[in-house]
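Recall from the previous lesson that a structure prediction takes nothing but the amino acid sequence as input. Here we apply that procedure to AAA+ ATPase domain-containing protein from candidate division WWE3 bacterium RIFOXYB1_FULL_42_27. The sequence below is the only information supplied.
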Amino acid sequence: MQPLADKIRPKNISEMSGHEKLLGGGGIISELLKSTVQTGFFPSLILWGPPGVGKTTLARIIATETNRKFYEFSAVNTSVKTIEKELEDNGKTTSPNLWSQDSSLKKKSGAPVVFIDEIHRFNKAQQDALLPMVEQGKIIFMGATTENPSFEVIAPLLSRCRVVIMDQLSEEDLEKIVERALEDIGKKLEKDARKFLIQSSNGDARTCINVLEIAFHLQPGNEITFDDIKKALQKSQLTFDLQGEEFYNTISALHKSIRGSDPDAALYWLARMLEAGQDPTYIARRLIRLASEDIGLKDPQALVIAVAAFQACERIGMPECNLALAEAVVYFAKSPKSNELYIAYGKAADDAVKYGNLPVPLHIRNAPTKLMKDVGYGKNYNYYHSPEGKKLPDIEYFPDKLRGTKYLR
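The prediction returns the following tokens.
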């Protein structure tokens, strides 16, 4: 049986939901499709966006509307050799080497579209192997990725492609998709069930339709209920890549919400990470750094709390340690902030690198032997403890070249 998501997949641009900036009037894809009728030109593309926004669908539509042969692969289980053989077997070249200069891959309909899903999973050598075909125009390459192409696609391939950003689908976009699906299956959907389905799908059309299809088979009657959707979904789908760009975006959002003294937003980003399965000790380590970097001497207790939260995560783990992290996050967000230590250390580190191994002043050198004492090590050292924590003005602890330097305000 054909899956519902594939059955209602858009066949042309007008059927696609969302991406108005790309597909609407004046959008780059719309304009390219118009011009290719006269010029025959269509560029290679990197389609970058979260799961379920229509990257594969768009590639198929482009191939159809430009009247080109379409080859679809996944980088998860495909090699460059497999792609080469597939194209050769379909009679697109008479050359024994698909990548050679004399390959007659182009036909009257133009170069074929070669679509590779999850292109970020190809290593550097595999991506390098695609370059000749893309550069010579033997194929129109389309790669789909959920990861930032700047990090995951090699620069030579990236420079030969146009990066097209496909944003997460809105609830209104998913509403239209659900309507199409309901028309196909011939059932109604309760209002609360519809809202729950759309919100739980997190902008992912594939998740939305797959859950609806399962609920359809769970419900023998004419109307799919909230409980049907809940059973089909099992739990809210938190899409959070524990290694990819979204991981760094989310931890950045947590850090900056704390720095900006917004405890409510900080709690939200913490929950986003923990509920999606992020290692709590990683978050705790970041909080230790944050306590010194963004709060510092304004509240030295912050560092103690951060270390305590880390120990709680190590000892009891999730889900019990979630409140220990929440306590630390809220405490930090409400604490007075100062980056004085962060800036001061940066200046000190710059001087250490800039001036190299400046000699330690003799009077503060260690003198464990008689010879060292005889040559002046430790001579006239003032063994002094200030009750107020203030330095005596006539004693210098810096190397001569940095005498009188101030890093702290």
